[in-house]
Design brief:
Length: 127
């Protein structure tokens, strides 16, 4: 499986089976990260981390503080797709894989701005 990203009618495919989605909360300016796995059933949220709390981003009771991050394993079914909005108030979303992070704007090769970006699992392109 690969990750397909769609924004403003443009589709990009990243050949990876897992990734970290990272962003900064627009109000609290606190870092947030989620680890996702691409499966035949959809995108599976494996772990979530947040550097602090406030403005609707309190870690759940089962979260543990590890190296400055509240970490926990969300319990939810895989999702067919993930839709990311951008208010422009907190910067760009980041997709990280194998220690490298790129913004959505870098992946698409132009500023995403307020355009919605949809992430979903897909078959890798045939060469």
């Amino acid at each position: 499986m690969s990750l397909c990203l769609t924004s403003a009618g443009v589709v990009k495919t990243l050949s990876l089976a897992a990734f970290t989605l990272a962003w900064t909360h627009s109000v609290e300016r606190i870092d947030w990260q989620e680890d996702w796995r691409i499966t035949p059933k959809g995108l599976e949220l494996v772990q979530a981390r947040v550097k602090g709390s406030g403005a609707g981003m309190e870690p759940p009771p089962e979260a543990r503080l590890v190296d400055g991050w509240f970490q926990w394993r969300p319990r939810r079914a895989p999702m067919p797709e993930l839709v990311l909005g951008n208010s422009g108030a907190a910067g760009d979303w980041h997709i990280c894989h194998d220690g490298n992070c790129r913004t959505l704007s870098e992946i698409f090769g132009h500023p995403i701005g307020a355009n919605v970006t949809t992430l979903r699992g897909c078959e890798p392109p045939r060469e």
